[in-house]
Specification:
eight-stranded antiparallel barrel, mainly beta, 189 residues, 2 helices
């Protein structure tokens, strides 16, 4: 319980500091900014926290940057999940739109956080996907993206009780899947 609460607090604080720190540089970089669309394939390692074994995955991702600090993203992921106890498998297909918030960038490397909503064929409800990533710009057209994403079945709301000051999380939450991806993006525009 405390690990999930710590993870959520960490993600919220990263997002908060990212937005605050990136808002300082908006005025400076907005004049030279032009909207960019990137798309590309990827491979990865999918780690379910349920009755399935870890597996390799294939993905397609895209990003439409609307400002120097954020953009609209999409991802499609496909993998074959094998049961731990049985000799059968299920196909896992995830489609998710989301938002990406970028940190201040260096010459070739840029860090970012992401929030997606995952629509998955083996889940009845959509999952919330929180993640972090790093983009390495190889040249003018190509970049390599490294992402670590965590799939949650709900968003728990942290609270503190009074007068005992006990911390807890109300609501459904908890990580169901973890996923590491490497994608090669091509800059279209």
């Amino acid at each position: 319980m405390f690990q999930n609460m710590f993870t959520k607090a960490w993600i919220v604080s990263i997002l908060f500091f990212n937005i605050v720190l990136s808002s300082e540089s908006i005025g400076k970089t907005q004049e030279n900014f032009s909207s960019v669309i990137e798309v590309g394939p990827g491979i990865g390692y999918f780690m379910p926290r349920t009755d399935y074994l870890n597996s390799h995955e294939f993905s397609i991702g895209g990003l439409w940057t609307l400002s120097p600090t954020y953009g609209i993203r999409f991802s499609i992921l496909s993998t074959q999940l094998n049961y731990e106890s049985e000799d059968s498998s299920r196909h896992f297909l995830q489609f998710g739109p989301g938002v990406q918030f970028s940190f201040k960038s260096r010459e070739k490397v840029k860090g970012y956080t992401l929030i997606d909503v995952g629509f998955i064929n083996i889940e009845k409800d959509a999952l919330f996907i929180f993640g972090i990533g790093m983009k390495y710009r190889m040249n003018e057209k190509y970049s390599l993206n490294f992402e670590l994403r965590d799939y949650h079945k709900g968003i728990g709301i942290p609270f503190v009780t009074f007068p005992r000051s006990q911390a807890g999380v109300r609501g459904e939450g908890g990580s169901k899947y973890l996923d590491f991806q490497v994608q090669l993006h091509y800059r279209i525009k």
